[in-house]
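Form 7-S
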Amino acid sequence: MPPRPYFSLSELSFEKNAGYKSTVYALAELIDNSAEAEASYISIILVINRDKRLVKIAVADNGKGMAPDILQDAICEKSGEHLDRQTGGGRPGRRKFGKYGVGLPKASISQANKFTVYSWLKGGSKEGYSNGIDIKDKKWIKAGAHVADSKKNPPPTKWVDTSGLKNSKSGTIVIWEDLDGLTWSRTRFGENKGLIPQLEFQIGRTYRKLLAGEKPELRIEIKVIDESFHEIESVNIGPNDPLYITKGCKIWRERLPEGGFWPSDDPIFEETTENNNFVDLKITDGGVKKTVRVFWKRSGAKLDTFARIGGRNAGNMLHGKHAAQNVGLSLLREGREVDISQVLCNPSEPRERWFGVEFDFPQELDRILGMTNNKQCYTRLELVLKDKFHSFIYDDETTLQCIDRIRHEDEELSICLELAWKIREVWDTARRQHLALRETDKDPLPDPENSGLPPGATPEEAAEVIASKADGIKINKSQTESEILEQKKRLVDDLIKSNVPKNEALQIADRLLEQGLTYAIINRRGLGSPFFNISSVVDAKLIELNEDHPVHPYLLSSIGTAASKDPAALQERLVNSRIALLLMLEAWAKIESDIRGLNPTEHRLIQRLREDWGRSLDLFVQKFNESNDAAP
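Output:
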């Protein structure tokens, strides 16, 4: 038999399904090209027929345009002008949005069977060249589907005028025809449905950094025209910030009967980011060692933002519904949002909408974090975040020890793990801060003046005092000042050896010495799989509660974050706490059951430990009841 080609070229050879989530994401590929071409204005033109259905779409910009040979390359996959930007070559530009050189052709073919690109470098649109392809052109396919040289062919005047580029010395217009891959076939239908509302919301969020401010770097306008080029509608896309800390965002607001809108604040969230809101990472990029910086931000809703108005729940108001569509972790690349990931949140949980977190990664981390070629997801980072270290950590390891071990085995994976750990830390902090803000009444503790508990004691501090009383609190009043300082130094040194931060170690040491405590309880991250760890610090016992453990928010945070004025929420958290406690007992039962058949001697030892634990708990509860009885 004669040799045969690897595959036969036909209309079906072109990838119509390129993995774009929607038409909006495909259009974002063209906007990326415009932004990187230093455009300050982009026009998205939607052409509709008599039935109000979309028949053509164009994206035009006033960027620096393309030379004829570059235009030809841009039509071909993996030949775009911005391809070599990822390896440090190419012309310098203000943004590194390009990645694989596939955006223009792949995005266009995913939505249309035919696309044409007009571009000009100087002298206005009359100096323009054009190129394009039609995947239904059988003669072109039969001839090998070669992209010809760009031809001197100015864009039609109607397109130039409608685009707002009549006076632009340079620019580009991309036109999609024979549309067959659209997610929305109409510009608008129903309430907040159709292509225009989606463009406003998603494009506004993706490019919010460029659209924000009194003098934004970029202006994006949507124009709806009929087939005779008569304008029907015009919309400016504003920034949509999922952290709600950017002024001037287009947020749905309720009109108040007395006039004005609610919420009246702008912005409606407050930024809660610390000063050191970055992570420096040492990486190897193209054989060169360098340090890259990842920035993050965190925010939480103001009290008025999620307060009830006229008996209405804020979540059911317009701004609450807007926030519900922005729930998740915002992941950015070079200031451009890639995805709003919901791997860390529960979108059906109403409270998740009232805080926000974003992480902004440099393009050098693309490979390490698993950036997809259509810039829609960090696949490797998502998997690690979802996994919660279960596939990487050993039973006897802390999170930090796990990262350090993997750093010697797989440097890139360790970077991904380190970032995932930091992301979880920032996310959990944002969540805790919001839940603490919702709390209107703290859980009642016995009166400290009569119970012997320190003023303003937290549940952890109260438990320290109660358990220490059971041990018999002893304060050595005969110690000299130098002896106290020496003991404090030993306590602090032991705590730091247990990876407790120095500031927290100093506070714990003061508490132990001033009250003669024999127990110290702290909440910490990075402890691996155990729910808690036990270690000794001089004469005291240090109990570290693992904030990374799945049971922690249910057992230790549920009641403390419940607003007592909301009986339904309080009841839900009490139920969750009880379930979490029962799951802990069932986990202990599983350990006993598994060991019973393997090692009867060890099983009996565990039974005795359980009995001793019960006796100690009985003693501690007695002391707790005494504290309650002492209160008036």
